[in-house]
């Protein structure tokens, strides 16, 4: 299908994208801070310019037609390209304004904290938004253009729509508190883990998937007492009780009373990375922050 963009405005495309996302003109108009009649009029004008309906209107919901589904990625790319062009022009002028959105997993919090202290002191007028999440959640936001880059233990493959730069290497370790009888140990075999009560992060975390692969390769099954989808809460429970967990050593930055016991018997190293979306413009501010991260 060939689309003619000559009379089209970015505003119309943004309205179309939001309406397609929410499948409701009332909700979309509220988020766009316009009236519903204005949104309906703009969508109708866009459909007239294209010569084909983009939405099916059913009761209070709207659904993309086949033409709408075909048109959607072109609209999103056009808006994204326009935003990238605007960012490039802002970068050419100065670093006195602008926004930077960074996603990260818990284990890299300390790294970003130190870098942000230096960055904000040097560029105080850059507005920074930090978003915590699982690797899967953050990659989705990166793909959607909501983040400039993410910090995690994800390593992009060549076929992926992302590229990753390695920042450091960390070891997977058994994490215990002072009340745990293993606290005095310096090393433990991975084959001894089934004897230990374990609390684990939920399957949403990439570290859990990584751990599962290693344990399966070693034919090791864990005695899992609890699964939690919040790393900070997980560490607090381990800190105050006799259970243990398995995480990267870098996760202990805010828990000095916890101890990381070296696990042996398999390759348990992971690389901390900064991950970008391929083939998009990288903001000058993002590149400068990334440079600071590589030096921290």
TrEMBL record:
GO cellular component: cytosol
Keyword Transcription regulation part of the UniProt annotation: yes
Domain of life: Bacteria
One of the record's GO molecular function terms: DNA binding
Keywords associated with the record: DNA-binding, Transcription, Transcription regulation
Residues of the HTH lysR-type domain: 8-65
Gene3D superfamilies, sorted: 3.40.190.290, Winged helix-like DNA-binding domain superfamily/Winged helix DNA-binding domain
InterPro entries for this protein: HTH-type_LysR_regulators, LysR_HTH_N, LysR_subst-bd, WH-like_DNA-bd_sf, WH_DNA-bd_sf
Similarity comment: family membership: Belongs to the LysR transcriptional regulatory family.
The name this protein goes by in its record: LysR family transcriptional regulator
Species annotation: Pseudopedobacter saltans
Taxonomy of the source species: Bacteria, Pseudomonadati, Bacteroidota, Sphingobacteriia, Sphingobacteriales
């Amino acid at each position: 299908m060939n689309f003619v963009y000559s009379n089209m405005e970015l505003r119309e495309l943004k309205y179309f994208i939001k309406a397609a996302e929410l499948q409701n003109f009332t909700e979309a108009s509220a988020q766009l801070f316009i009236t519903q009649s204005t949104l309906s009029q703009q969508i109708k004008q866009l459909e007239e310019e294209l010569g084909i309906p983009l939405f099916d209107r059913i009761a209070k919901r709207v659904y993309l037609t086949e033409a709408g589904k075909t048109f959607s990625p072109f609209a999103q790319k056009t808006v994204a390209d326009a935003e990238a062009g605007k960012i490039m022009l802002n970068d050419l002028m100065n670093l006195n304004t602008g926004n930077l959105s960074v996603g990260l997993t818990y284990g890299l919090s300390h790294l970003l904290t130190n870098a942000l202290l230096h960055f904000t002191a040097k560029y105080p007028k850059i507005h920074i938004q930090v978003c915590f999440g699982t690797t899967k959640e953050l990659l989705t936001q990166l793909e959607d253009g909501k983040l400039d880059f993410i910090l995690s233990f994800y390593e992009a493959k060549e076929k992926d729509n992302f590229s990753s730069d390695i920042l450091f290497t960390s070891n997977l370790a058994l994490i215990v508190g002072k009340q745990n009888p293993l606290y005095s140990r310096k090393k433990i075999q991975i084959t001894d883990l089934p004897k230990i009560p374990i609390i684990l992060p939920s399957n949403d975390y990439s570290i859990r998937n990584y751990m599962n692969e290693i344990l399966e390769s070693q034919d090791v099954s864990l005695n899992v007492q609890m699964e939690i989808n919040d790393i900070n809460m997980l560490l607090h429970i381990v800190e105050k009780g006799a259970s243990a967990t398995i995480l990267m050593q870098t996760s202990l930055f805010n828990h000095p009373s916890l101890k990381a016991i070296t696990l042996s018997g398999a390759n348990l190293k992971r690389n901390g990375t900064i991950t970008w979306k391929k083939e998009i413009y990288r903001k000058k501010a993002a590149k400068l922050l990334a440079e600071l991260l590589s030096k921290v």
